[in-house]
Amino acid sequence: MKSITAQKPLEELLESLGKAKKVFIVGCGTCPTMMGTGGVEQVSSLTERLGETRKKVTGSIVLPVACEPLPFEAQKEFLSEVDGAEAVLVMSCAYGVRAVADLLEIPVLPALNTLFIGREAEPGVFIEECSQCGDCVLALTGGICPITRCAKSLFNGPCGGSVGGKCEIDPKVPCGWQLIYDRLKALGRLEQMEVIIPPRDWSLSWSGGPRTYSLDEKERSKGSK
């Protein structure tokens, strides 16, 4: 699974930089490098384009994994390289932006849009498979998520608007519930289509606010039972 990203327009980056003249650029050696949105080549290209707008790029670095905390010694080296910049542009997913922002007291700005977490279905083609909603029903739906794969996130069967197994929103998009039906039929478990899934607890998902999970709390709760 990869963080799927796309580059922001230069005009948007300049607007977010505002009056900052000295800019440091951070790339990421994992997902953005594979996607061609934030690797060495893209960092070099952005450096050149910013230079044409009279912004001074004070330096750049492609971190091995931008979303992971840097070891202490690497933090010191990173901070020394960024020193003197008035803002930092991060060519990574939103997780990387947050990780870099935690280290600095100057504006840390995203140079990419984070689209979704995706699986590579075929070379160069990524599909969103999971919305990380916190209450998984894949056991009933043949391993295919109705929240993610159905355009309307319907929980109990299709809407009736699909044509030829394709979603009414786009003839190129498979109907999520057609995929579920075909999978359950192949598994010999079509009777699961008759199970009524109750309204879910959306407080377990991102709609309930920022989520945290503590391994310590998990262990304590197990020990108290």
Spatial strand sequence of the major β-sheet: 3-2-4-5
What is the number of strand segments? 7
Number of helices: 8
Q: Helix- and strand-based class?
A: alpha/beta
- N-C termini distance: 35 Å
CATH class division of the largest domain: Alpha Beta
Q: How would you characterize the largest beta sheet?
A: 4 strands, parallel
Question: How many domains?
Answer: 2
3D structure, described in words:
This protein is α/β, with parallel strands linked by helices. The protein has 2 domains: 2-116, Diphthamide synthesis DPH1/DPH2 domain 3 (Rossmann fold), CATH 3.40.50; 130-206, no CATH class. The protein is built from 8 helices and 7 strands, in the order E-H-E-H-H-E-H-E-H-E-E-E-H-H-H. It has helices spanning 10-17, 31-35, 40-51, 72-82, 94-101, 146-149, 176-187, 215-223, and strands spanning 2-7, 22-28, 56-63, 87-91, 108-110, 112-122, 125-128. Strands 3-2-4-5 form a 4-stranded parallel β-sheet, sandwiched between helices. Strands 1-6-7 form a 3-stranded antiparallel β-sheet. A hairpin with a 2-residue loop joins strand 6 and strand 7 (125-128). It is elongated, with a radius of gyration of 22 Å. The model is unreliable at 220-225 (pLDDT under 50).
Fold topology:
Elements: E1 2-7, H1 10-17, E2 22-28, H2 31-35, H3 40-51, E3 56-63, H4 72-82, E4 87-91, H5 94-101, E5 108-110, E6 112-122, E7 125-128, H6 146-149, H7 176-187, H8 215-223
Parallel strand pairs: 2-3, 2-4, 4-5
Antiparallel strand pairs: 1-6, 6-7
